[in-house]
Amino acid sequence: MAVSAVVLVPDGKPRASGWPAIAWGHGFMGEARQCAPSLMKNLGAGPLLAMFANLGYAVIATDYSGWGTDSGKPLLDMQSNALDVIYSVPAARAAVTQIGAKWIALGSFQGGLAAVAVAESEVRDPNYLGSVATSGLADAQEAYRHYAQGSSNRMLLMLASSVKALYPEFKVSDMLNDRALPAYQRSAETCGGETGPEFTKEMLKVGWENNKFVKEFFGRNTPGQRRAHSPLLVISGEADVAIPAEMSGETVARMCKQGDRILFLKYPNLDASGAMGASVANQISWIKARFAGYGAPSNCP
User: For the segment 155-190, what is each residue's pLDDT rounded down to a tens digit?
Assistant: First the structure.
């Protein structure tokens, strides 16, 4: 199916090899068509993406399948999202011929998972140099258990929708009770925030996470199921309430054990947004080094 995207390019003429490219993976903003970042004036992360364009990078900001052009797609599935990121690069290059061959993937929250899944994907581009995940890296089951206990429990509505899109045999009523169904239906029409539907963990059925299809979703959405074939920069804020740094650290440690090359940076007293801003210099340094062909650093044990 068609997937919408936006390409930002630097001012002036590119170098002979073309502009190096950053493929951006967006965080999740809601299920409805109007939630697509390409339909927002600032793409949902305008200052950050404009900064990279001003530094001389072409930025390829894809929506995910189901945003902007259709609905009923697994928007929270990191493997599907990764394919959208991967395929956005040759599509952008065909539309803007000044974009060079080399590229890296960068994302936050759901986009961070997508960026890691690019590194683990069986679809390999020899010009792909690595990924940056600025928040949200965690094993899926642990992440959704955490969401269920906190203020991010509305993500469970989106989880049910994504599982249903991946596995049509899945019955939403096996995960959500009758009180949750109005919120589930409303979630497909909103982009969250104050207009988002009310949802509480009491609307989940007992044992929901042991459902066959939910467990299959958790399996395909846990980083480290395959060894990453390119280096990773993983960033986490120690005050991040959505995905705590210790949860990300557990996932990184497991990925390190299988041989992934990861530089894991934690920022004390900062949430995900704060860590994103505080880590900009480290992101830029890491990205520049990948395009320059230097060996990637790692602080795996």
Answer: 898 899 999 999 999 999 999 999 888 888 888 777
The pLDDT mean for the chain works out to: 91
Rounded-to-integer distance, Cα 161 and Cα 168, Å: 10
Rg over alpha carbons for the chain, rounded to the nearest Å, is 19
Query: Structure pTM?
Result: 0.93
**DSSP per position, the chain:** ----EEEE--SSPPPTT-EEEEEEEPPP--SSGGG-GGGSTTTTTHHHHHHHHHTT-EEEEE--TTSSS--SS-TT-HHHHHHHHHHHHHHHHHH-TTEEEEEEEEESTHHHHHHHHHHH-SS--TTEEEEEE-S--S-HHHHHHHHHHSTTTTHHHHHHHHHHHH-TT--GGGTB-GGGHHHHHHHTT--SGGGSPP--GGGBPTTGGGSHHHHHHHHHTSTTSS--SS-EEEEEETT-SSS-HHHHHHHHHHHHHTT--EEEEEETT--HHHHHHHTHHHHHHHHHHHHHTPPPP----
Contact assessment for residue 236 and residue 266, using Cβ atoms and an 8 Å cutoff: yes
- Distance from C-alpha of 189 to C-alpha of 98, rounded to nearest angstrom: 38
202-215 average pLDDT score? 94
